[in-house]
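WARN no homologs supplied; continuing
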Amino acid sequence: METTLEVLTVGGSGRQNRSWPEDVKARIVAETLVPGATVNDVARRHGLPANRISSWRTLARKGRLVLPAPEDPVEFSALMLGPADDGPRSVGPAATGPEIAFGAVVIRLEVGASAERIVSVARALAAGA
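OK structure emitted
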C-alpha cells in the first residue's frame, strides 16, 4: 500500500518577522519587572518567544531601550551603614543619622530622619546628576 504525504502551505515561509515599536517593547519589558512577574508569563500573554523579551531586557539594561516611568512615584535605594569605629565623622554630638553616598559626596542626615526626608534628599541628588 502506498501512502501519499501532502503539505499545504499558507502564503510565505511561515515566519513572521514583526517590527515592534520602541514604546511597545518598553511597556512589555516593564511588565516583566513587576514583582512576581516572569518573562515566560509575559511572553505567553503577548504571544512572543521569551528569548525576544529577554533580548529587549538586555537592551534596556544597556540603556538602548528607555522604559516608561514607574506608576508608583516612590523609588527605593540601598542604604549602607558602616561601622561606627572608622574614625571621627563630624564635630558635634556622637550620635549619627543616616548617610547618603553619591559618588564622592556623602550627605549625613540628622538622627531620626524620616523616610520622606531621606527620599527628598535622594531625589534632589538625582535631579542634580
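The radius of gyration is 26 Å.
OK
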